[in-house]
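name: query_chain
kind: protein
chains: 1
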Amino acid sequence: MEVLKLKLTLKPARVLGSRFKIGGRRQDVCGCTYEGRYIPVGESFWADQDCRWCKCVAGRRSVECQNKGCGVGQRCQVVEGIRKCQAVSHSTCQATGDPHYKTFDKRKFDFQGTCVYQLVALCSKDPELVHFEVLVQNDHRGSKVVSYTKLVVIKVFSLNIVISKTHKGLIMVNDELVNLPVTLHGGKVSVYKSGWYGVVTTSFGLKVSFNWESAVFATLPSNYMGAVCGLCGNYNSKPHDDLIPKNGGKPVSPAEFGTSWRVAEIPEVTSSQATEIENKKLQLNGTGAK
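structure:
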């Protein structure tokens, strides 16, 4: 029996430049090499300890970088395997007692207004910062001379979170009473009890605590430096300019400064609304007791 022998000759494949044809058009397929690493076409990345922003450019097989760097209060760091600009510190603003305020830059003052005021909010157009607002409502308690924080509102991620003296141990989320703890907006916001305080934390570093009585604390990471405004000041490491009013200009008295950040009069609550809220509280407390 004859054995048929076949000789198979393999020729090495050739890469024809960095393109091939799809539908009659030449397409880029090769990426770039940066410090020994392969970078796919069109991919952007932080390049080095200076956080230069680089991209593999299609058709050129080269990496182009911008000296973007990190903003105020940030440092280029690797966190969970990803290099990016990270906040290097945090600062806390507070309103306690009747109420005594201390700004992010540690400026202290007293303000006895009894309306709704902006404690702190994002006032920058920086697209990399998450927008938020924290409002406080003050009221008199026995004396018309002094006022106390009665209610705190946190507006973030389309959520309206209210921690009020009226509903101790509970919060309101978009006008609904809610038991704690609770996770909201896909895990980006958490609200829980810690000691005497209700605490709201967010994925971007904002933390707000209120004891349902008279003490509120707001903490922000340093990448928000110079980007916020309100009774907590502008967080720019310059306490001497913290009492500049909302419309700008020079620093003014605490009374004038505080009044400039008024956003609303104290809202009226109808008897039917009060009854509805009390019924909801009873339901929640009953559920919690089971």
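note: Confidence is low (pLDDT under 50) at residues 1-27.
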